[in-house]
Design goal:
The chain is mainly beta. Helix content is about 10%, strand content about 40%.
Length: about 300
C-alpha cells in the first residue's frame, strides 16, 4: 500500500500549491501584461440615493475595459519594483439610476466618458514564502502566493459628454465656472493629474518563469474633475462673458441638462449642488500573465 500511495502523492504535488520551483528571482527582471473591467466612482451615476463612497456606489452599467503592461525588477523574493503603463476608458451616467431614485441624481441627467492613460511606479510585495517548506534543508516555494502593490502615478483624462449624436469635450467649457473671477476658488482643471494605485493580487505559477494572476487595483486621484463634476451650479450668464458665442451656448446647455428629462425645467439654480467635493477614483479587476527571467539555484 505504501508503494502505491507514495507515487500518488508525488503526482498530486504540482496541484497543491507546494511544488518545487527551485529558482532564485533575486536580481532578475520580469514582465507582466493584464486586462479586465474598470468601474468609476465619482459624482456621476452610481447607486440610488445620495452618492456613497467607493464600492457602495458601484453600478454594473458603468463597466468599461482596461489594459496595462509592466516591467518588474525583483530586488528579492519578497520585494520588487514595478513600472506600469496602461490605458482604457471610464464612463458613467445619471440615467443608470432607476426611475424610482428620489435623490436628484437621476434628475440631474449628467453623463460622461473619458479616455484614461496611466503611468505609475511603486513597490510590490511578493509573499512567495507564504507556503514554503523545507526539503533536505532547502527552502522550496509554493506555486500560489499573494502580492500587494502601492505606488504613485500620473494619468491623462479628457471628459466628454454625448450631445446631438456627437461627443463634446467639456474641460474648456468651464461648466462649473473654472477660471472665472466670480468663482476664485475654482481653478481650471488639468488634463494630467496624479493618482495613487493600491493593489492586491493572487498569483499561480505554471512553471519557473510563467505565472497567471488576478489583481484588483483601486486608483485614488488628486482631482475631482475626471467626470467634469465637482461642486455647485454657476450663473449661466457668465458663459457669455468668458467664452466665444458658440462655446457659451454649448456650455449653457451642457452645464445643466436636467431640462431634457424634466419638461424643459432646469434644476441648476446658481449655488445649488451639482456635485460633491471628493476626489474621484476608479477600480480595475485585471487578469494577467507574468514572466520572470529566473535563475537556477546552486548549492
Amino acid at each position: 500500500m505504501t508503494k502505491l500511495i507514495y507515487p500518488l502523492l508525488l503526482g498530486l504535488l504540482p496541484f497543491t500549491g507546494l511544488s518545487q520551483l527551485d529558482v532564485n528571482y533575486t536580481g532578475t527582471w520580469g514582465v507582466m501584461v493584464q486586462t479586465g473591467p474598470s468601474w468609476f466612482f465619482g459624482d456621476v451615476g452610481g447607486q440610488p440615493g445620495v452618492g456613497k463612497p467607493f464600492a457602495k456606489d458601484w453600478n454594473l452599467l458603468g463597466t468599461t475595459g482596461n489594459f496595462s503592461a509592466s516591467a518588474i525588477y525583483n530586488n528579492s523574493d519578497r520585494l520588487a519594483f514595478r513600472l506600469e503603463a496602461g490605458g482604457g476608458m471610464l464612463k458613467s451616467a445619471d440615467n443608470y439610476l432607476p426611475l424610482t431614485d428620489k435623490s436628484g441624481r437621476r434628475e440631474r441627467n449628467l453623463s460622461f466618458r473619458t479616455p484614461i492613460y496611466e503611468l505609475a511606479a511603486g513597490v510590490q510585495l511578493n509573499y512567495r514564502f507564504f507556503v514554503s517548506y523545507a526539503v533536505d534543508n532547502e527552502t522550496v516555494k509554493g506555486r500560489f502566493f499573494p502580492h500587494g502593490f502601492v505606488g504613485i502615478g500620473a494619468f491623462y483624462s479628457d471628459p466628454q459628454t454625448r450631445y446631438q449624436n456627437q461627443w463634446v469635450k467639456l474641460r474648456h467649457l468651464r461648466t462649473e465656472g473654472q477660471g472665472m473671477a466670480e468663482y476664485p476658488d475654482r481653478e481650471p482643471y488639468k488634463a494630467i493629474n496624479l493618482f495613487v494605485p493600491v493593489s492586491l493580487g493572487l498569483n499561480y505559477y505554471l512553471n519557473e518563469g510563467v505565472g497567471l494572476h488576478l489583481e484588483c487595483t483601486w486608483r485614488k486621484s488628486f482631482t475631482d474633475y475626471v467626470d467634469d463634476v465637482s461642486t455647485r451650479y454657476i450663473n449661466p450668464d457668465l458663459f457669455d462673458k468668458y467664452l466665444a458665442p458658440d462655446q457659451a451656448k454649448l456650455a449653457r446647455t451642457l452645464h445643466d441638462r436636467s431640462g431634457e428629462i424634466n419638461g424643459g425645467v432646469n434644476i441648476g439654480q446658481e449655488g445649488a449642488i451639482r456635485g460633491l467635493e471628493s476626489n474621484d477614483s476608479w477600480v480595475t479587476l485585471s487578469f494577467g500573465v507574468t514572466y520572470n527571467f529566473w535563475q537556477k539555484k546552486y548549492y
